[in-house]
Amino acid sequence: MEKNEPKIPHEEIVIKATLQGGFSEMESVLKHHFTSGRNYISTLERHLGVKFHREKASPKWRIVYRYTVADRQTAQKLLTYANHKAERYHRTAFTQAEIKAILARFNHEETE
Question: pTM of the predicted model, to two decimals?
Fold first, then answer.
């Protein structure tokens, strides 16, 4: 990362990870180098009125969960929120192509 490149907030990292296949508390530590992944999930749920899907990340870990986005409405709220926050710093969290691709994964919900 270059010195002038803005640091991506942990909250945005959590949103991107949950929208792109899921996010576990262990990944927040090992891959992203922060320890408050569960706190960001809880804060997003309260702030945006959404609910993440939770499943145990591994049978041998008692309280480590993997979080995923359960539906299109939650995905849309997360995408809008992330881009709104990034806009404050003259950045874009998700491009229109990324938004389209992410939301396309949930299109089957509309026909059910």
Answer: 0.84
